[in-house]
Amino acid sequence: MKHAVEIGVFFTIAVLIMGVAWWLSHAESFILSPQLAPSVQPPLGKPVQGLPDVPPDTQQVFPSDAANITDFTDCVAAGYPVAESFPRQCRTANGRLFVEDVTVDDAPPNSRARDGCVITGCSGQLCADEELVSTCEYKEEYACYRNALCVRKNDGACGWVETMEIVECLADARGGTR
User: Fold this and answer.
1) pLDDT digit string, tens, across residues 100-113
2) Which residue from 9, 66, 70, 147 puts its CA 20 to 30 A from 23's CA?
3) What are the pLDDT digits (tens) for 130-156?
């Protein structure tokens, strides 16, 4: 029985290796074929020819003035596709990538932080005088701070306002008693 299992495992691994080898040998046609990858962008100023289910009058023509594009705003204004990531990204037909510039000044003010304090940390779990870097693990108790106020305390340090709601939430999240 043990011998049969070993043969089965060997056979499975061999089939996987052959599948990967086949895919790698054909990957270029999958990646570069416009019929299989309609998102491949055409040369500058040229429409994509031969795409299935796309009438010729609706094929997108990209601007040929990509050299004049110098930033994200120009790229978007020229009609190039925008990836809805954060920050957003715009790529021209010749492959140039422009990333939206998002600064803290552009973001709306945090109404939960006051008196020069900031809500910081990877999970928004810290209330401090300045932006801090923290590890990015998540603990259930961090959810308790979602609606909490971050203010300057009497001792001058920033801290969370400990309402009964917050105290109860933290106790429940930590599995302790109130």
Assistant:
1) 887 654 444 456 78
2) 9
3) 998 888 888 888 888 888 899 999 999
Q: Are 113 and 146 in contact (CB under 8 A)?
A: no
Euclidean distance between CA atoms 132 and 124, whole angstroms: 10
3-class secondary structure per residue, the chain: CHHHHHHHHHHHHHHHHHHHHHHHHHHHHHHHCCCCCCCCCCCCCCCCCCCCCCCHHHCCCCCCCHHHCCCHHHHHHCCCCEECCCCCEEECCCCCEEECCCCHHHCCCCCCECCCCEEECCCCCEEECCCCCCCCCCCHHHHHHCCCCEEECCCCCEEECCCHHHHHHHHHHHCCCC
Q: Residue 22: phi, psi to the nearest 5? A: -65, -45
